[in-house]
């Protein structure tokens, strides 16, 4: 499979900007029978890690197999598509003690209030942070620790073509 040319990659500053401003990602986890479970989620970027608060199958999957891929992209038009794929390990913060021990969760909670929309926005704006905590069987914060990042900015394709 051909690699994405290095010249299309986001700079560290561009990657941070993308991950700090985009509101939605897709997280892929390994489900039962090795099927991929792909789910859109709100997310935050803090301390070099991806945070999301969710429940259900993705939490169950990460408990069984921590391998996860997060995809963040903006502008569906191919010529201007900007995105990043972060592959790594998903960690489920199982209880309030694990949440307190996480070095960057509070930053993610505050960022969530800034990025979120809809009904959740009303719940977060009063306190200025996402108040969610471990609840039920699967309501948990998830942290994805990237081991590999692939990024692209297709707006750079024009420059690459002119040089080629």
Can you characterise this structure?
The protein has helices at 12-21, 57-64, 96-101, 105-115, 118-125, 157-163, and strands spanning 24-30, 36-42, 44-46, 49-54, 67-74, 82-93, 140-153. The chain contains six helices and seven strands; from the N terminus they run H-E-E-E-E-H-E-E-H-H-H-E-H. A hairpin with a 2-residue loop joins strand 3 (44-46) and strand 4 (49-54). With 164 residues, the chain is an alpha+beta fold. It has one domain: Electron Transport, Fmn-binding Protein, Chain A (Pnp Oxidase, Chain A, Roll), CATH 2.30.110.10. The mean pLDDT is 88.
Write the layout of secondary structure elements.
Layout (H helix, E strand, L loop, with lengths): L11 H10 L2 E7 L5 E7 L1 E3 L2 E6 L2 H8 L2 E8 L7 E12 L2 H6 L3 H11 L2 H8 L14 E14 L3 H7 L1
Antiparallel strand pairs: 1-2, 1-5, 3-4, 4-7, 5-6, 6-7
Helix pairs in contact: 4-5
Report the sheet-strand fraction: 25-35%
Count of individual beta strands: 7
**Helix coverage percent:** 25-40%
The CATH architecture designation is Roll
CATH-assigned homologous superfamily: Electron Transport, Fmn-binding Protein, Chain A
CATH class: Mainly Beta
Cα-atom Rg, whole angstroms?
A: 17 Å
What's the pLDDT, averaged over the residues? 88
Biggest sheet: strands side by side, in what order? 2-1-5-6-7-4-3
Uncertain residue segments? none
Q: Give a quick account of the main beta sheet: strands, pairing sense, barrel closure.
A: 7 strands, antiparallel
CATH fold name: Pnp Oxidase, Chain A
Short description:
The protein is of the alpha+beta class and 164 residues long. It is 30% helix and 35% strand.
